[in-house]
């Protein structure tokens, strides 16, 4: 590698470097200890250790070239090399292209300047085709060289950054270098002859956290596949941890959570990730007031509300933002205020004041009103609470008076802090929310706090359009919606009437139509019912969008990953804030199971409706933080009772009794609707708890929980939750597969890891398709991970005992076609492991039967590479082409019918009945009788014989095996000859014709019988064919062949070798 010219001190360097070549202008040196017997002794070990600890380029580049001039003592390093071949190439280039030119110059300074210019030009040329861009510092180029040489990863693997640190191997710290790349965490250390290389893929990380103990003041703990790794002695540990967290979550989302990955365009190209990777929200402009580390107040604008952005020309460095409603905000003393103003104009699509025209916004408002009028023809334009519980202003009781006082307090706040999206949010705002939002303002403020008001403003008429398109559709989501409609707040009069039920149906169906990836999930009906009570129907729809897609991400899908992540966060908060409860109940999964409904329904399903609505107020203001705080407050309130509980059932009873006694003394709802007031007399002896007091207490005790901490805990626990789900999937797959194979559970576990890893490796460096293909967690366990023919070939080369055969690509192709019974060009782990199990543990008959089936249709197809120089090796395009041959034209009607009726894999609605039928067929499938196998025709038998010859190559008994197969072949041919003589030529021809048809030989194949090639020749020789019994009986007579196929295979060693060489084989490819 060419290096940026830098001065070196040759006097001290001579102790560490040895001279190899020299001339008047250049010197080639070798690092002491390299290529010396015994590693150069103690000096070599010390030099190697020094190179590793001090991050010397010489560790991975033990050769270098220096530039010198005859009358100067200054030397410049201009090139380094990892091996003699590389450095010799650079030396030869210098002699051929530079040496002759240097004699022309008169002064040493001119020579040095010329050499430096040439080297910089070479570096710039190399940079065009390298991931180390031109603006990368020289150190990073050297680090990239070390990273590539040390770990041997493909050149497409993008190195993000690297850090000096210590890796703890037991109780011994090993000083070295940590390299963070897009797909791997890698560590390298060399101390006194002991070399440590560690490569961990981000997708295998289940825990990533900062820890500290007596020995390690601060370290980063990485858990991968049950192994714990600790890294410490970082210069900037927080920066390192943050970047590791981002890369780990990027990999998890990319491989296991494609839905959120697809919706994030920033993550589309893994090669664009850098150390400065960050995500920007394009929807809002926010301003926070930081008071002693706390954000007491803040204001934000939706970008579409911004009318103009301007900057002042004075020394105040001010930016002025004008928004709708004739309001302007001035921000002074802004650093880089000119760049900020330009960026805001770009983001908001706003102009400066002098060029701004207000008419477009007026047109927007008119358009919005028009759309609302059109929408009113289809949907309700009033909240259900105003229809079923209108306020009676003539008869004001004490509760209604309190409600009016709340409204007055909010009106005063609006007058002081603004109303709508430009409203300041202060401590006073929070206090009013804790007291409960007035009924008349609830819908408006929910829309404001959640951001749904902005979504509705940017999509006028969208809801009415979606309602019109979705009504009348029938699918799995609509069936589930219809089933749950009557279960949604059934005690409320609004949902005992057709008005409320119809509105609920429209909102849920419209959302399922809008977001088919989520569709409909239980608990959405309860939440939507509450929204419809206080918001107009269209507003309720956009509130549901805000909750499902922003405020509670990944909650409402098949795996409810988001809810499980927040359950893990809740457990962590319980350990931190309620340690005595943790000591009493060591298994905190109980709280996860109990609190799942709290999070999914925002306490609506467990609290009386008049109390639950106050919780929803706080949720829309504070997000998930409000729910976590309230959960802790509830456990804290019941702490003494929970500590006396002897089992989970008693604890559940205690919490349910508590929820029944939560009231809202200020609720203006009629007593007929309130649930808390309908408690029986027997339960009245229990202490009543007011929801306002409970929420206030949760804020006072646990209000110090920060959003940043919740985000960090979410990121950390997301890794654990997803890896736990993956482990559950693996255990279920292994339990099913283990019943049909002879491989042990441990061997199956190793095989599954290799199978899954190959699927991941296929998308690591694929820019065109960065997300994981053939993975759908919504499918049954066996179908979640599937591989295509290209991936199967790679695994076949790694695992098959027959992979040394010259025609191994053809064998891999035929095996894949045999396993792909439903012709979708994908196979699952059960199908894959069944073939590997026969190769490893099958009897002589089973292995021979597998080979026989590989050489008859539907598995067999004639294979010829387009490039004769490659022999039997197939390109990726050829492999995919041959694997799909039988897809377009199934062999017979029965196969075509099975393809048609097979359940769809990952496309649209899942046919559960088809899966059940398929499972039942597999369960009662009888073992295949060898007599049912079709006969093998002439061309197929020739290929079968060639395969056997290839398998025997380089075997210790190679000669005897070749003789045995020659004997068997001649014997079978003689048997067939005798059989033909016993029949007339006509009957033989007819018999053979029927054989070809029975075996499914394709009529268009070139190696057809002579009868088909030349129909005008009535005396053409009929082809011969063999049954499997004939071939089996003949081969059993040869002991050498029997020994070859029954030779035991060290499965454990084979799997270990495959695991270590899997990444290396991908690098070669």
From TrEMBL:
Pfam families: GRAM, RabGAP-TBC. Residues 1003-1013 have a biased composition (Basic and acidic residues). GO terms for molecular function: calcium ion binding; GTPase activator activity. One of its GO terms (biological process) is vesicle-mediated transport. It is found in: Cytoplasm, Cytosol. Keywords: Cytoplasm, GTPase activation, Repeat. CDD domains: PH-GRAM1_TBC1D8B (cd13350). One of its GO terms (cellular component) is cytosol. Residues 807-842 form the EF-hand domain. Residues 984-1021 are annotated as: Disordered. Residues 436-623 form the Rab-GAP TBC domain. It comes from the Eukaryota. SMART domains: GRAM, TBC. Involved in vesicular recycling, probably as a RAB11B GTPase-activating protein. Interacts (via domain Rab-GAP TBC) with RAB11B (in GTP-bound form). This is TBC1 domain family member 8B. The gene is TBC1D8B.
């Amino acid at each position: 590698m060419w290096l940026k010219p830098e001065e070196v001190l040759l006097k001290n360097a001579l102790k560490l470097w040895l001279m190899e070549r020299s001339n008047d202008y250049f010197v080639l040196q070798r690092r002491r200890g390299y290529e010396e017997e015994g590693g150069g002794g103690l000096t070599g070990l010390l030099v190697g250790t020094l190179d590793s600890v001090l991050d010397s380029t010489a560790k991975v580049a033990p050769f270098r070239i220096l530039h010198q001039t005859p009358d100067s003592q200054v030397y410049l390093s201009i090139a380094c090399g990892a091996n003699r071949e590389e450095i010799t190439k650079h030396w030869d280039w210098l002699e051929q292209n530079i040496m002759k030119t240097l004699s022309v110059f008169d002064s040493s300074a001119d020579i040095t300047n010329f050499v430096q210019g040439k080297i910089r030009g070479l570096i710039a040329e190399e940079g065009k085709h390298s991931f180390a861009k031109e603006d990368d510092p020289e150190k990073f180029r050297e680090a990239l060289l070390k990273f590539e040489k040390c770990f041997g990863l493909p050149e497409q693997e993008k190195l993000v950054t690297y850090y000096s640190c210590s890796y703890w191997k037991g109780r011994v710290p090993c000083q070295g270098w940590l390299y963070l790349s897009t797909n791997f965490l890698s560590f390298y250390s060399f101390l006194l002859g002991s070399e440590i290389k560690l490569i961990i893929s981000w997708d295998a990380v289940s825990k990533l956290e900062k820890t500290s103990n007596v020995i390690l003041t601060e370290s980063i703990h990485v858990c991968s596949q049950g192994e714990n790794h600790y890294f410490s002695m970082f210069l900037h540990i927080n920066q390192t941890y943050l970047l590791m967290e981002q890369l780990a979550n990027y990999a998890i989302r990319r491989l296991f959570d494609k839905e959120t990955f697809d919706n994030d365009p920033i993550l589309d190209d893994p090669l664009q990730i850098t150390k400065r990777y960050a995500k920007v929200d394009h929807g809002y402009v926010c301003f926070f007031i930081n008071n002693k580390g706390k954000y007491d107040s803040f204001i934000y604008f939706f970008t579409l509300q911004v009318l103009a952005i301007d900057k002042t020309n004075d020394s105040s460095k001010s930016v002025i933002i004008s928004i709708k409603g004739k309001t302007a905000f001035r921000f002074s003393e802004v650093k880089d205020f000119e760049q900020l103003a330009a960026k805001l104009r770009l983001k908001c699509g706003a102009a400066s004041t002098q060029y701004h025209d207000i008419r477009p916004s007026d047109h927007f408002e008119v358009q919005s009103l028009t759309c609302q009028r059109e929408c009113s023809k289809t949907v309700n334009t009033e909240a259900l609470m105003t229809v079923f519980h209108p306020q009676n202003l003539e008869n004001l009781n004490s509760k209604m008076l309190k409600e009016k006082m709340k409204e007055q307090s909010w009106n005063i706040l609006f007058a002081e802090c603004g109303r709508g999206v430009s409203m300041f949010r202060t401590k006073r705002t929070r206090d009013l929310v804790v007291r409960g939002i007035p009924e008349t303002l609830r819908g408006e403020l929910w829309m404001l706090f959640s951001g749904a008001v902005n979504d509705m403003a940017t999509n006028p008429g969208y809801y009415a359009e979606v309602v019109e398109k979705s009504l009348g559709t029938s699918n799995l989501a609509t069936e589930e919606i219809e089933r749950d409609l009557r279960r949604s707040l059934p005690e409320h009069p609004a949902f005992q009437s057709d008005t409320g039920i119809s509105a609920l149906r429209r909102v849920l169906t419209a959302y399922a139509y809008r977001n088919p990836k989520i569709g409909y999930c239980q608990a959405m009906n309860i939440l939507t019912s509450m929204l419809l009570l206080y918001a107009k129907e269209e507003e309720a729809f956009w509130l549901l969008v805000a909750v499902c897609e922003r405020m509670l991400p990944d909650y409402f899908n098949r795996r409810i990953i988001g809810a499980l992540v927040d359950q893990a966060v809740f457990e962590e908060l319980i350990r931190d804030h309620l340690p005595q409860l943790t000591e009493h109940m060591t298994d905190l999964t109980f709280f996860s199971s109990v609190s799942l409904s709290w999070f999914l329904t925002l306490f609506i399903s467990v609290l009386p409706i008049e109390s639950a609505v106050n919780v929803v107020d706080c949720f829309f203001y504070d997000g998930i933080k409000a729910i976590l705080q309230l959960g802790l407050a509830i456990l804290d309130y019941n702490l003494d009772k929970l500590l006396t509980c002897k089992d989970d059932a008693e604890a559940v009873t205690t919490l349910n009794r508590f929820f029944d006694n939560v009231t809202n003394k200020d609720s203006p709802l009629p007593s007929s609707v309130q649930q808390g007031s309908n408690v029986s007399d027997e339960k009245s002896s229990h202490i009543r708890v007011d929801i306002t007091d409970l929420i206030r207490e949760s804020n006072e005790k646990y209000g110090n929980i920060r959003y940043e901490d919740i985000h960090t805990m979410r990121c950390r626990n997301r890794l654990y939750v997803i890896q736990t789900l993956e482990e559950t999937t693996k255990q279920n797959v292994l339990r099913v597969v283990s019943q049909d194979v002879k491989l042990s559970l441990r061997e199956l576990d190793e095989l599954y890891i290799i199978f899954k890893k190959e699927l991941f490796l296929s998308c690591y460096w694929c820019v065109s398709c960065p997300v994981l293909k053939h993975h759908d967690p919504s499918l049954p366990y066996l179908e979640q991970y599937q591989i295509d023919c290209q991936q199967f070939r790679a695994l076949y080369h790694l695992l098959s005992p027959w992979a040394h055969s010259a025609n191994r690509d053809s064998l891999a192709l035929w095996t894949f076609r045999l396993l792909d019974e439903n012709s979708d060009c994908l196979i699952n782990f059960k199908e894959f492991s069944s073939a590997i199990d026969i190769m490893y543990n099958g009897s002589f008959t089973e292995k021979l039967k597998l080979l026989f089936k590989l050489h008859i249709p539907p598995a067999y197809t004639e294979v010829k590479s387009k490039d004769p120089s490659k022999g039997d090796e197939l390109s990726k395009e050829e492999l995919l082409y041959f694997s799909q041959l039988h897809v377009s034209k199934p062999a017979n009607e029965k196969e075509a019918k099975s393809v048609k009726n097979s359940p769809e894999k990952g496309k649209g609605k899942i046919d559960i009945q088809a899966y059940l039928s398929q499972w039942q067929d597999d369960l009662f499938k009888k073992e295949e009788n060898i007599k049912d196998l079709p006969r093998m025709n002439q061309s197929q038998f020739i290929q079968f014989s060639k395969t056997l010859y290839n398998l025997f190559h380089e075997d210790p008994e190679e000669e005897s095996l070749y003789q045995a197969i020659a004997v068997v072949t001649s014997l079978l041919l003689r048997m067939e000859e005798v059989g033909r003589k016993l029949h007339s030529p006509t009957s033989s021809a007819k018999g053979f014709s029927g054989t070809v048809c029975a075996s499914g030989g394709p009529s268009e194949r070139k190696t057809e019988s002579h009868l088909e090639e030349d129909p005008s020749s009535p005396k053409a020789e009929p082809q011969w064919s063999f049954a499997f019994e004939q071939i089996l009986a003949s081969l059993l007579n040869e002991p050498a062949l029997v020994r070859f196929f029954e030779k035991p295979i060290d499965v454990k060693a084979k799997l270990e070798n495959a695991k270590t060489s899997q990444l290396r084989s991908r690098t070669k490819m």
